[in-house]
Design goal:
Length: 638
């Protein structure tokens, strides 16, 4: 077989085509690897859709393969006798090997990384790596635990080598005119391929949104994509333009207004504010929302605390990454296609909880047990108005480190409590846990103490719950405790959902959010939705802040605001009441009643057109306010 290919490849007009086709075949194999590595996320795909996904995938693969091999292709089609030299042939072979090896490695890595990110990696995903201080130890840990990725990659490396060995570039054109004609024709096809269209009616380059043509569920687009494509298309960051859904400010503010007008006669209440952000804490692990005995009830202390708090059974994260949580919680800024902190607008002037409370004399601090500066938290904390950062350096005891991420939650939360006791009042402080992180370890002396679930993360969440119980026990008799409002939430959901209701578009964002303040807040289970961007304006209302401020969330303690939430997963997801509308930025893609049907199978777009129109108007108002204010640097009230 290889000898037959080798003979066929000697035809110069076919040599280049055969190499490109061979790499395209490897990209299709890598799509199968991606699919089987993440089968739990794509278990409801029928044969017809699977066929369409692969058809669309070839279109996206063609673009990526041509981009990766563009230097090689241009060298090959360029007229001349340069390919007859042995050294030059070796150079082109090495170039071909390296570029395709990198492209296929990106696909292989995403086969594992998708379960954490729930989308193909984009350019900003590469930027995020520079902010992880313990990157080398993490990569070594991942290299060992996910060894199968490297086995698959070695298979692809061998395949590329065989392509190079049996499909040798050669040129047998009889004259320069034929070479020139071949080059012109090739350029025509290359440009068409790079644009992702055919030769007859391609009017615009292939973009990320085109993947929706081949799938029935938005998150299935990850199967259509390949990782080099999503990186190429997001290279340099997302370029956003001003929206013009509404032509004047009156109409726009009627649809959505982010300015919160406070009562100037208010008397400010200087309560202490403590925000606890739990790593990867999904509602699936909570016994309050999830009654399933296998996957729920892993956080008994937090469940008991929640039922003594102001909370909702429908509370949502506004992002899927840790770096998206702080802008949402502190600044009421959601992240959509790109994390806010990695966007060109990350240095915009902001109003935030810490910066506003500092004007009231608050001591501001942030605690995270990882190496200082990890995830870019220290940089953003500084921009948001945090004066005191406490990380692994300040903890200063390597003996309590888990060896990968940083300090175990139990000792670090004890450290957190002792520091709070030293701060002058009023204080604002946030702690971000880390033990419920892959590889989901718990301290050796506590092994066997917590029940195990269908995935190791459940045991580590039980450990964090235990650590928080000990933290509250250590501070409950402190004189400042009764004057402190606690907000407990998560940065995002776990990527390891077990039940279908927590693994669909809606469930991927369901995190606990509750306000615990026994002295001032009655235990309440509200029917409203609570999202991370609601925390900022709700606390401002609780403290009776007397000046106007900008926040894209709502005050959950008031009935004057419409009940809404928003997040992004392949589409914008606009929640209103018990409905969720999928919106691609221009038009609705579906309407579902998530309270009645958690699996989101029944599209109500045709049955409830009026509701669809109403929600579309709200979503457009929100997005126009958000996007235009980002561009114009108007995220504060002057």
């Amino acid at each position: 077989m290889f000898n037959s290919i080798k003979k066929l490849a000697k035809l110069s007009s076919l040599t280049l085509i055969l190499r490109i086709l061979a790499v395209l075949f490897l990209f299709s194999l890598s799509r199968l690897h991606f699919y089987f590595s993440n089968l739990a996320f794509f278990d409801n795909i029928g044969f017809h859709e699977f066929k369409r996904i692969f058809q669309g995938g070839i279109r996206f693969d063609t673009v990526s393969v041509l981009y990766l091999n563009l230097p090689f292709v241009l060298i090959y089609i360029f007229p001349g006798n340069h390919l007859q030299g042995k050294k030059f042939i070796v150079f082109t072979d090495v170039l071909f090997f390296i570029t395709n090896a990198i492209g296929l490695l990106a696909n292989c890595i995403d086969g594992v990384y998708y379960q954490f990110n729930l989308r193909r990696s984009i350019f900003s995903s590469l930027v995020e790596l520079q902010d992880i201080n313990n990157l080398s130890s993490l990569l070594l840990s991942f290299f060992i635990r996910y060894w199968s990725v490297w086995v698959v990659w070695v298979f692809f490396l061998v395949s590329i080598w065989l392509i190079i060995k049996y499909i040798k570039p050669s040129r047998t054109f009889k004259n320069k005119h034929t070479q020139f004609d071949f080059a012109i024709i090739s350029v025509f096809f290359i440009v068409a391929g790079l644009r992702g269209g055919d030769l007859y009616h391609s009017t615009r380059p292939l973009g990320l949104n085109h993947a929706g043509e081949y799938v029935e569920q938005p998150h299935h687009t990850a199967l259509v994509f390949n990782t080099p494509f999503t990186i190429f298309k997001t290279l340099g960051g997302s370029k956003i333009k001003k929206l013009t859904f509404f032509q004047n400010d009156i109409e726009l503010e009627k649809a959505f207004n982010p300015i919160h007008l406070a009562d100037s006669s208010n008397t400010f209440r200087p309560y202490n504010v403590v925000i606890i952000i739990i790593e990867s804490y999904s509602e699936e692990a909570s016994g309050v929302v999830n009654k399933d005995k296998t996957t729920g009830g892993f956080t008994p202390f937090l469940d008991s605390l929640r039922q003594k708090s102001f909370y909702s059974e429908y509370s949502f994260a506004n992002g899927k990454k840790s770096i998206e949580a702080l802008p949402a919680i502190w600044c009421s800024l959601p992240s959509f296609k790109q994390p806010f902190v990695l966007s060109p607008f990350s240095t915009n002037k902001l109003n935030s909880l810490p910066s506003i409370l500092k004007t009231k004399g608050y001591h501001t601090s942030f605690f995270h047990g990882a190496p200082n500066g990890s995830m870019g938290f220290q940089s953003f904390a500084n921009l948001a108005g945090i004066d005191h950062y406490f990380g692994k350096t300040e903890y200063a005891n390597e003996a309590d480190s888990d060896g990968i991420w940083g300090i175990w939650d139990e000792p670090f939360l004890q450290f957190f409590g002792k520091k709070l006791d030293q701060f002058h009042q009023p204080f604002f402080s946030t702690v971000f846990t880390l033990s419920s992180h892959d590889p989901f370890k718990i301290p050796s002396h506590l092994k066997g103490k917590f029940k195990k679930g269908p995935h190791p993360i459940y045991e580590t969440l039980s450990y964090t719950d235990f650590a928080l119980k000990r933290f509250f026990e250590s501070i409950k008799n402190k004189p400042w405790f009764r004057n402190t409002v606690f907000v407990i939430t998560a940065d995002h959901t776990s990527s390891h959902a077990t039940l279908p209701a927590f693994s669909n578009n809606l469930g991927r964002f369901r995190v606990p959010i509750f306000f615990y303040f026994p002295e001032k807040i009655e235990p309440t289970k509200t029917a409203k939705m609570i999202q991370q961007i609601d925390i900022f304006p709700s606390l401002m209302a609780l403290l009776k802040f007397e000046k106007p401020f900008l926040a894209f969330g709502k005050n959950v303690f008031s009935n004057q605001y419409k009940d809404y939430a928003i997040n992004y997963f392949e589409n914008y997801q606009w929640h209103s009441g018990k409905y969720v509308m999928l919106f691609d930025g221009e038009k609705p893609q579906g309407l579902f009643n998530f309270a009645n049907e958690a699996l989101l199978k029944n599209n109500l777009s045709k049955k409830e057109p009026q509701k669809l129109v109403e929600m579309q108007l709200q979503a457009k108002g929100f997005l126009q306010q958000y996007q235009n204010r980002l561009i114009e640097n108007r995220l504060t009230v002057e």
